[in-house]
Amino acid sequence: MRLSRAFLPTLKETPAEAQIASHRLMLRAGMVRQTSAGIYAWLPLGWRVLRKVEQIVREEQDAAGAQEVLMPTIQAADLWRQSGRYDAYGPEMLRLKDRHERDMLFGPTNEEMVTDIFRTYAKSYRDLPRNLYHIQWKFRDEIRPRFGVMRGREFLMKDAYSFDLDHAGATRSYRQMFTAYLRTFARMGLKAIPMQADTGPIGGNLSHEFIILAETGESQVYLHKDLLEFDVLSQPVDYDGDLSPVVDFWTSRYAATDEKHDEAAWDAIPEADRVSARGIEVGHIFYFGTKYSAPMGLQVSGPDGKMVNPEMGSYGIGVSRLVGAIIEANHDETGIRWPEAVAPFKLAVLNLKVGDAGTDALAARLYAAFDPDAVYDDRDERAGVKFADADLMGYPWQAIIGPRGAAAGKVELKRRATGERVELSVEDAIARVKGGG
Ligand code: ATP
Ligand code: MG
C-alpha cells in the first residue's frame, strides 16, 4: 500500500470523548469512525486487523472440530417466543417490525436460531456430537456504550454452539472449546485467564469468562500468579484425546471475577502468589444442558430408541472487542505496538527523500519484497511526520531509508516493540523481517 494513494487517515487531536488508550489510539490512527453511539465504521487499517483477529479465531475453531456457518443478523421474534426469551431479554434487544407488521429483531446472540436449524436435520444420536459456529455482527442496545469498540452496540462476535447426547459428551465439547480459547488468545499475544463466572441471561450451570488483565478493564479479578506463566502454545493438543494436561491446570489454581470471588479461598493462597487486578472479558463459554433443546423441541432418538433432548453449550468471543483489548495490552505514549500475528501491515518502508534516485530504488526493493503486507511511505512529507505516523499505526517493523544510508546501500531497521535500531543491507533487512527476529 503506497501511502500517497492510500486511505489511511490520522487525527492530530486526541478526541475528547475517548477515555482509554485503545479508544484514543483507534481514533487517532484512523482505524474506526463512530457513526452513531456505539456503532462504528471500520476503516482500512482497522478492518485489516479485525480480519486477522477473525482468522485466528476461525483457524482455532476449525482445529477444535467446530464447523463454520453464517446465520443472519435479523431474526423472527417467533423463534424467541419458543424459548421464552423474547419477553425476558429486555431493552438491550433491538426490536423491529417488517412491512407486514411481523415482529423481528436484530440478533444479540443465536441460541434460538441455531437450535431451530439443528432440529430440522438432527434425527438420531448418530447426528451428535456437532459444533456449529459463525462470526457475525450482533446488536445489543447497551445502556452505556463506551470505550470505543470494547463496549459497542453493534459488534462482531464469534459464537459457537455444541450439541451432545449426554452430560459426558457436553463436558467434552466444553473442554474442547476451553482449550481452543486458550490457544486463540495466546496466538494474539494475549494472556487470557479463564475464570468461573455467572451465567447471566444465556442461563445454565457451568460457565467461564476469559479475561485479560488491563488497568482499564471493567471487571475486578483475583488469580493465582502461576496462571500468568503457563504457556499453552507449547503444549501438544489432541482434540480427540485427553485434554486434561491443558484444561486441568486452570481449574487447579484460583481465578475468579468479583461476583464469584471467595474470600476464604483467597486468604488461603500465600500473599506472594496472589494477583488482584482489573480485567477485560474477551470470551465467555457456557454449558446449559437442555435449556433450549427442551422448550424448542429439539430431540433425537438415542441408542436405545428413546427420544432425548441434546445437551447444549454456547461459546462466544468478542472479535471486535479484541482489537481494542490487544491495543490496551500493546501500546506506549507514541502509539500502538502490534503483535506480528495481528498487525495490519508487517513493515512500513519510510522513504525520507522521495525523488532521490538512491532512496527510491532501495525503498522500491524493500516494498516489493513484502507487498501486500507492507506500507510504503512515499508521501511528500517531513521525516518527523513519517516517523510519528509509523509509530502511531504500530507496524512491527520500520525500514528507514535516507539519502546518506542509501548511498552506502544501507537501511535502518527499527523494531517497534523494543525501539531497537540496526543498520543493514537491503538483503539482510529483508531476511531479518521475514525471520521475525
Ligand atoms: P459483558 O459482560 O462485557 O457485557 P456479556 O457477558 O454480555 O459481556 P456474552 O454474551 O458473554 O457477553 O458475549 C460474548 C462476548 O462478546 C463477550 O465475552 C465479549 O467479549 C463480547 N461482547 C459482549 N458485549 C459486547 C459489546 N457490547 N461490545 C463488544 N463486545 C461485546
Ligand atoms: Mg459474558
From TrEMBL:
Keywords from the named record: Aminoacyl-tRNA synthetase, ATP-binding, Cytoplasm, Ligase, Nucleotide-binding, Protein biosynthesis
The answer to whether keyword Membrane applies is no
Q: Which domain of life is it from?
A: Bacteria
Q: Which GO terms describe its molecular function?
A: ligase activity
Which Pfam families does the record match to this protein? Answer: HGTP_anticodon, tRNA-synt_2b
Keyword set includes ATP-binding: yes
List locations, semicolon-separated.
Answer: Cytoplasm
Catalysis performed (reactions): tRNA(Pro) + L-proline + ATP = L-prolyl-tRNA(Pro) + AMP + diphosphate
Residues forming the Aminoacyl-transfer RNA synthetases class-II family profile domain are: 38-339
Relate the protein's function as given in its record.
Catalyzes the attachment of proline to tRNA(Pro) in a two-step reaction: proline is first activated by ATP to form Pro-AMP and then transferred to the acceptor end of tRNA(Pro).
Subunit comment: Homodimer.
The family this protein is said to belong to: Belongs to the class-II aminoacyl-tRNA synthetase family. ProS type 2 subfamily.
Q: What is this protein called?
A: Proline--tRNA ligase
Species assigned in the record? Paracraurococcus ruber
Q: What is the lineage of its organism?
A: Bacteria, Pseudomonadati, Pseudomonadota, Alphaproteobacteria, Acetobacterales
